Amino acid sequence: MTDTDAETLAERVRDGELRLYELEEHTDAETAAAARRHLLAEETGVGLDVVGEYAFDAADAEPNIENMVGAAQIPMGVVGPLPIDGGAAEGEHYLPMATTEGALLASVNRGVSTIRKTGGATARVLKSGMTRAPVFRVEDVAAAGEVSAWVREHVDDLAEAAESTTSHGELQDVTPYVVGDNVFLRFNYDTKDAMGMNMATIATEAACDVVESETPADLVALSGNLCSDKKPAAINAIEGRGRTVAADVLVPHEQVEERLDTTTEAIVEANTRKNLVGSAKAGALGFNAHAANVVAAAFLALGQDAAQVVEGSNAITTVDAREDGLYASVTIASLEVGTVGGGTGLPTQAEALDVLGYAGGGDPAGSNADALAEVIATGALAGELSLLAALSSRHLSSAHAELGR
């Protein structure tokens, strides 16, 4: 690539000869990105030298981005070691987190240190399944009932059609929902180590062809929002989506005082009044302090779909004063993660997954994504412990002030 090549392409775009998205058809990915930066710099007067500095080959990013101009660099840190007794995750883990929020990693690492002092946390994936829910039009409720009955009796036929599109995904169930002349079918798939949204969409389209050919239903939209993807939804809180995962720990009372500078009773009260009562009054779907903070930072570092933090924040934190100490848990109903596909193949994110120890496909299939979910949930638990402690001891603002945030 030369500057002249990029400038020439930028000029052709400016003259209307080419469109921004057509540049890769005429040159390599690096030159195309440089041409777009040149065009933007000329039209906006903004230099994009830093945006144009990145460590990966632009061609490697083509499956993940269109109209590429460069990269947005987010500071990445790490918390740990975090010991976990998981169904899939075992031993100690360092959790990479990418964020621009000062004090976040320091706070989470305080919770990690507390968990480590107890000997570790327990974590389990309780349920797994990626959903897609198309909506069909029918004549009336009688037809809706007919379609629903047919679907319940022919799940095996729908599975055959859906699974013909993938070598990995398995259809687990299909649940009909009727609203007047609308029939929604919520397909649920085991997508193994992939987050699986694209897999589920393609498979469901094939199954919809069978529904249309065998019933009076007409497909209106492949997604009818009952899935529900990247939107707050009670159905995900109840039924789950992706991984439903929980983590818990028992912290002796003396360690609560020594490491968290507060008491078990104070944390219990803060959790009840803030996470439970306050969330209920707000009409929240998540009953937690800031689980999305850990989910978002982990998603950015580990190549997950950042928009699905919406579902990942759908968590409930419970705290209880027991005879032996403070019991704390976090249950995330719809954590949508994968260790293959999507952004997991980008070099930075692939390295971060390697640090965690769960890059690529697992053996057995699905075990790496299960382990990733368990580590993120345990990280969220650490974050909940630390923030609840800061609130109950009235140290939240002073901690931010001390760290200059």
Detailed description of the structure:
- The chain has 405 residues and is α+β, with helices and mostly antiparallel strands.
- The protein folds into three domains: 59 residues, no CATH class; 213 residues, 3-hydroxy-3-methylglutaryl-coenzyme A Reductase, Chain A, domain 2; 88 residues, 2-Layer Sandwich (Alpha-Beta Plaits).
- Helix content is 43%, strand content 21%.
- It has 14 helices and ten strands.
- Strands 1, 2, 3, 4, 5, 6, 7, 8, 9 and 10 form a ten-stranded mixed beta sheet that branches.
- β1 and β2 form a beta hairpin.
- It is globular, with a radius of gyration of 24 Å.
- The relative contact order is 0.14.
Topology:
Layout: H1 3-14, H2 29-44, E1 76-86, E2 90-98, H3 104-118, E3 121-132, E4 135-137, H4 141-153, H5 155-163, E5 170-179, E6 182-190, H6 197-214, E7 218-221, H7 234-239, E8 242-251, H8 253-260, H9 264-282, H10 291-302, H11 309-312, E9 315-322, E10 325-335, H12 347-356, H13 367-392, H14 396-402
Parallel strand pairs: 1-3
Antiparallel strand pairs: 1-2, 3-6, 3-8, 4-6, 4-7, 5-6, 8-10, 9-10
